Amino acid sequence: MRRARTRSQALTKRFLRDRSGASAAEFVLILPILAILLFGAVDVGGLAWAKIQVGAAARAGASYALTNGFDEAGITSAVTNATGLTVTAGTPAQIFGCPDLADGIVEVEDDSVACPDSGELPGDYVTVGASADYSPIFGWPGLANPVQLSATTKVRIS
Questions:
Q1: Per-residue pLDDT at 58 exceeds 60
Q2: Which residues pair with 88 in a beta bridge?
Q3: Is 0.85 topped by the overall pTM?
Q4: Residue among 76, 88, 92 at smallest CA distance from 124
Q5: How do the domains of the chain map onto residue ranges?
Q6: How far apart are CA 25 and CA 132, in angstroms?
Q7: Residue 53 CB: number of other CB atoms within 10 A?
Q8: Which residue from 108, 92, 112 is spatially nearest to 100, judged by alpha carbons?
Q9: How many helices (H) and strands (E) does the chain have?
Q10: Which pick of 34, 79, 87, 142 has the fewest CB atoms within 10 Å?
């Protein structure tokens, strides 16, 4: 009996001293964390790409308005056809506005009254909006699925 105990103790000590599989065991423990980080990076990259595409679509609509004037159908077509992403165009709006250092463009009702800061008449502006849904690869806690992305651009056309 004593010999069996000594032999099992020797095997246990040998097993505890053997480090040949330690790296594999550590890798198996770390692998799920690395996979979550990788998939999270892919999802964040896809979200950033989709946001950039939505902004580009809104800018394409504004560029069309700048070149061709206010044409609701043309602006909407420019927004929806601007990128490979399925983008929904908001209804373009034509407004009168005055430039303002603090607020950007301040909408005014009467285009015959001079702007308070510059003394010039208000300009014609077009507001173009675009939106799209982005569905992440995985459902993440605290993140809606799909994520609603939107962008708005204003451009002076006259």
A1: yes
A2: 131
A3: no
A4: 92
A5: 21-156
A6: 44
A7: 21
A8: 108
A9: 3, 5
A10: 142
